[in-house]
Amino acid sequence: MQIRLAEKDLDFVVRTVVTKRGDFENIKGIIRDKPDLINALLDDPKLFQRITNEEEILIKISPYLFFEILLRQARREIQARTYTYEKVGLTTSVPVFDAQKVSDFLKNDEIRIYLADMLSSFAKTQSTVIYFKIGQKYYKRRYSDLDVDDLKELSDLVEEEYKFPLYKRIADVCLFLTGIFPEFIELKTRYSYSRERRPAVLGKERRSLSKYIQEGQDFYRLAADHCPSARAQAIEVFKYLADNFEFVRKPLLYIADRYLCFQKHRWFDY
To answer: Where do the structural domains in the chain lie, given as residue ranges?
Structure first.
């Protein structure tokens, strides 16, 4: 899996990093088909400084490049320390001495590119309306690609050959929510003032954080099993995510806490 930047992203990177030359079109022509050179430019800290200082940055670059830059910055910062924080509940965090392992896996281009692409897919979510007939009456059902129950229901309706993208999306939703919006999950599963568990809404399951994690692992394994054989690299990525799901959440939690903070809804259609 190689980094392929859109033209506007390549232009943004070159104009931000290359400060001692002005022949930007010539530079872009030289590096456009050279992933190693692009990779080196993407590691320049000036990119992170620019995307965090400029307003309306997503008008200038793609969501993919935005999250690629954040993941690289997270790797640099995590690499400089010996521990990461692990959340316990809504307000408590405990240190875990695994920073080197987190930093090392973020150096893996395939995993990091997958995470950046996955995060960018939530910048704009979609819904689908399906019409069906029961007896003499027609009904319609709206499905959201950010709702695990909707996606699981859809995966049960389609033929085997069409299940892969749904399994992948279910796993991605679980990783996204547990990594970027864990407080949303915690709030939904907390006890009410009567100390009785809040009921499920409209028949949907009210999942705990551990349930989302387990389903994320399960559906990444299903995605690996149903992935077209031509995409061997993707199969290995899905297996890695399934086996290391809780660990992979850590850079997402770091990004959410350090860079996105209270503006997460600005970056994600959620």
So the answer is: 1-61, 127-267
Torsion angle defined by CA atoms of residues 185, 263, 149 and 213, in that order, rounded to the nearest 10 degrees: -50
pTM of the model: 0.87
Beta pairing, strands 84-88 & 92-96:
antiparallel
Q: pLDDT tens for residues 42-82?
A: 999 999 999 999 988 989 999 999 999 999 999 999 999 88
* CA 80 to the chain's CA centroid: 23
Question: Residues near 259 by Cβ (< 8 Å), separated by ≥ 6?
Answer: 52, 70, 73, 74
From residue 76, give the alpha-carbon distance in Å to each of 23, 35, 102.
29, 20, 11
**Tens of pLDDT along 188-210?**
776 433 344 444 444 566 889 99
Beta bridge partners of 95: 85
